[in-house]
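Fold this complex.
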Amino acid sequence: MRFKIISGSGIILVLAVWAFITYTGMVGSLFLPTPTAVILEARKQIEDGIFFQDIWISFYRILIGFLLATLFALPIGVMMGTSKTWKAFWEPIVGFVRYMPVVAFIPLSILWFGTSDMQKFFIIFFGVFFQQVIMIADNCKTVKKSVVEVGLTLGLNRLEVIKDIVVKAAMPSIWDTLRTVWGWAWTYLVVAELVAATSGLGFRIMQAQRYLSTETIILGILTIGLLGLITDTIFGLLAKMMFPWHEKEKINN
Amino acid sequence: MNEHLLTATNINRIFVSKQRSFTALDNINLTIGNHEFVSLLGPSGCGKSTFLRLVAGLDSASSGSLQMNGSILDKPGRDRGVVFQQYSLLPWLLAWQNVAFALKKEKNMRSAEKKELAYHFLDLVGLKGFEEIYPSQMSGGMQQRVAIARALVIKPPLLLMDEPFGALDAQTRRDMQDLLVTIFKETRSSVLFVTHDVDEAIYLSDRVYIMATNPGRIAKQIDIHLSDDKDWSIQLSEPFINYKKEILMELKQQKKNVHQSK
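Structure:
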């Protein structure tokens, strides 16, 4: 409870500063709109039906891109984390590509996919996949040798040890990896939408710039932050449900 | 004549790195009979755990032969149950699931049957009523009991225990030793037990191999003859004290040798 009050007061402080400098006219409304203007803008967008439409479109893009990346990254990451041969195969590719800034691929992606959803999937996939692979491989590598040996002495073969022990043991940290990378996926999505889109939260922000409608920009940014907060909370709640043993371990330590 | 369950002949284990090689085990010869409790006793670095890992199939000897019931041991198998020093339970499984996990390979056994068996073995190690909790909710002693139940549930002819009570406090340790004496009488498994505790080795074993360091080798073998119906009070008896004297003398002698050779 105490910490809830503390974290609440942090947000209130930021809001208070915002309200103070805008309502007093210290900062012109063109540069930073008042909270009232942003709320009115939100009401307008909701009435026009574009508010939830934008959210849904952006969320849909990120979800598909992220799921596709995870679908491939999970097995490859586990392979890399458990087999030297696979590590030798994947490491140069993954290590090389992951340092390429995904933003630099946007022009190329537009050439390939136009401004379609496919282009957004591609950018998100490209942005998170290689990071996921490296991080998931690391998650698997940190599984204690002793639990692996337990599996071996119980007569499990290599594949069974990986499936029934390594992956299970690494799952909470893999989940944390996904949670972290999900946050990055939001960034890539917005970047992709800022440059080439005809809908979505990033597009709305970009369009608002043209008309100097800063309240739309602020609303868009706040919405993205709020969505991030909500999905992050969901990740956390799911972790508690899926890994009750892990939560208990943390409390004990 | 007592058939030997395990026979180790001229076992060497040399760890080679770029700079130098290190002889962890030098010409180890030992046997374990059926229903025999054998301890490896020695200071840290004498290779006792290395030898146990060889028997478990988690490591391979550089030379020599290791046979169990006439067949060569070169990989882990369900004929040997292992209890490690760190409790090494699977933290995402409940106590009974940890025990039942050992039965994963029993394709013909129904899961209800596995659960029943797991409950039975948890009862055997004194954990009745604690079946449905996670390892993180247990004390070290409880975790080690679950680990023992897990090793026993597959009914292995040979139980390998690597300093299983090393991390426990003195009182829990004594309780666990008594538990092991009881279980050993019931299950009739053979045991290879690694320890650096002299009292523990004498109390539990039929035979103690005293090991020495650098290179790791067997310095002396002592057969222990104590009553089968022993309890802790035997540790105050004269024969027990005499064994203890003999072993401590031997360990002291080794220390002297090391100093002289330096």
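The interface with chain B takes residues 144, 146-147, 149-150, 152-156, 160, 164-165, 168-169, 171, 243-246, 248-249, 252 of chain A (CB under 8 Å).
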